[in-house]
């Protein structure tokens, strides 16, 4: 009977399979390394591109911030100029206000009554004076309320007094000044001044 020893053949096959496994493992590792390198390169490219975009956006934002700051400065300058303009217009409007107030008071004062003192605080005017009777004080208050420049006449006090041996009524009242717009204030410039009693001079 013939006996064949197959051990060397099996050993060679085992050795060949081991070599193939090592080769495939090396190829798989190399393939994985290649895939990782390609993926890393692609991701790095995306990251670099995004970094460039972020840098460009930061630069544009810095420019916009600078422009916004300049616009804010211009707006503040414009508001300051507008505020100055309003102050100048107010001064231009109010510089003739005392003349108009005196003119209007002279126009509204009834006969038999005269003022002793006038004091203005803001838009409030305090008037003291003498009248022949309380009825004339009431008439003055009605005239002041009907005036286009004066309003809200309020009597503070009225009392009997003696002036040059004559009995009179001494009064104290407040009246509010109604500020006139520029175009309305211009209407009073052409009117002639009036004397006490409301008659034009």
From TrEMBL:
Instruction: Report keywords, A-Z.
Output: Coiled coil, Membrane, Transmembrane, Transmembrane helix
Q: Which residues form a coiled coil?
A: 47-91
GO biological process terms, alphabetically, are: type IV pilus assembly; type IV pilus-dependent motility
Pfam families in alphabetical order: PilN
Q: Where are the transmembrane segments?
A: 21-47
Q: What is this protein called?
A: Pilus assembly protein PilN
Source species, please? Zoogloea ramigera
């Amino acid at each position: 009977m013939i006996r064949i020893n197959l051990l060397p053949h099996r050993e060679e096959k085992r050795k060949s399979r081991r070599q193939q496994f090592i080769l495939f493992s090396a190829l798989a590792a190399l393939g994985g390394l290649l895939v990782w390198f390609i993926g890393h390169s692609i991701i790095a490219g995306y990251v670099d591109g995004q970094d460039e975009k972020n840098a460009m956006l930061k630069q544009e934002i810095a420019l916009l911030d600078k422009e916004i700051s300049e616009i804010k400065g211009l707006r503040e300058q414009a508001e300051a100029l507008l505020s100055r303009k309003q102050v100048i217009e107010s001064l231009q409007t109010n510089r003739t206000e005392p003349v108009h107030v005196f003119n209007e008071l002279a126009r509204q004062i009834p006969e038999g009554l005269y003022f002793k003192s006038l004091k203005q605080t803001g838009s409030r005017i305090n008037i003291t004076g003498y009248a022949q009777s309380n009825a004339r004080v009431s008439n003055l208050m009605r005239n002041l309320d009907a005036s286009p420049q004066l309003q809200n006449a309020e009597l503070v006090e009225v009392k009997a007094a003696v002036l040059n041996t004559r009995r009179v009524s001494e009064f104290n009242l407040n009246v509010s000044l109604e500020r006139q717009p520029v175009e309305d204030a211009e209407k009073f410039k052409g009117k002639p001044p009036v004397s006490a009693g409301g008659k034009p001079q």
